[in-house]
Amino acid sequence: MAAISAKDVSALRAKTGCGMMDCKKALSEANGNMDEAIKLLRERGLAVAAKKADRIAAEGIVDIAFDATGKKAAMIEVNCETDFVAKNADFRAFVKTVLDVILANNPADVEALKALPFPGTNMNVEGALKDKIFQIGENLSIRRFMVTEGVLSSYIHGNGVTGVIIKFEADEAAASNAGFAEYAKNIALQVAAMPVQYVNKEDVPQSVLDEEKQILMTQIKSDEKNAKKPDAIIEKMVAGKIGKFYENNCLIEQAYVKDDSMSVGKYTEATAKEFGGSIKIVNFFRYEKGEGIQKREDNFAEEIAQLVKG
């Protein structure tokens, strides 16, 4: 059997990120062959990943990257099990590399992304993910990503808790103005702080609007004071209240968070006029870490009772 030096173990650890004892064991089993030891660790990494696949990964980060032109951006959510790992520099570097892969290749979905080569390795993204699961010791999941191009602004809140990308249409006079970047950032901050579903009134589906009107009508009719009012009056009351729905659900109608005396739409109009150009908010994309994932709630009292029972 080949002698395994501390230098060899250290070199294998640097290549794989695995623990010292795991590296020493793999080198021993591979009779000192570095490539074979790496293969053994990767094979075990796949096994570890499979065992952890059913563990809930609701922590993690949302991150954003732009290409060299600044006209194309990608946003991703990658989940892990604990906030501790979400703050890990190695985990965050992995996420940034995956963003680079997305920007370079424009994959159609997560499965297509996983099949792409992972830079600096002979693995694809899925293989690199499973390697990372083995190294870190937690279940990790590439949950979602999106790519957009155009006149863009972005904001990441809370070191990766929430990510926002805003897409604009802006003419040269507005886009080249020194103040445009601040305006665009303010809109991204708005969406991060005050989440909405639509950009404009026109984006609200008729079915959603009809349902909201029906709810408002029922509420109004349920009030005894309105019992004898004719339907025409009640419909006018509903129309008056629907404006509040737009304010709560449409970005353009929402009160501007830095000056609630005007709406986001009015702020945009005033800014465009100041710049001597035109600005339109076309779309927004907002990811919040772990949204919609059912987090496990551990019942410690129940666990202790089970332990006592043996």
Outline the structure in words.
The chain is 50% helix and 17% strand. With 310 residues, it is an alpha+beta fold. A hairpin with a 4-residue loop joins strand 4 (151-157) and strand 5 (162-170). The longest helix is centred in the first third of the chain and has 19 residues, at 34-52.
Task: Provide tags for this entry.
310 residues, alpha+beta, three-stranded antiparallel beta sheet, 13 helices, elongated
Summarize this entry quickly.
This protein is an alpha+beta fold and 310 residues long. It is built from 13 helices and 6 strands.
Strand order of the largest sheet: 1-2-3
Structural class: alpha+beta
Discrete helix count: 13
Shape: elongated
The ordered H/E elements are: HHHEEHHHHEEEHHHHHEH
Low-confidence stretches: none
Helix fraction by DSSP (H/I, runs of at least 4): 40-55%
**First and last CA, distance:** 45 Å
Please state roughly what percent of the residues sit in beta strands, choosing from under 5%, 5-15%, 15-25%, 25-35%, 35-45% or over 45%.
15-25%
**How does the major sheet shape up?**
3 strands, antiparallel
Q: Which secondary structure elements does this structure contain, and how are they paired or packed?
A:
Layout lengths: L5 H11 L3 H10 L4 H19 L6 E8 L5 E9 L2 H4 L2 H17 L4 H5 L10 H12 L4 E9 L1 E7 L4 E9 L1 H4 L4 H14 L12 H17 L8 H19 L14 H12 L3 E10 L11 H10 L1
Antiparallel strand pairs: 1-2, 2-3, 4-5, 5-6
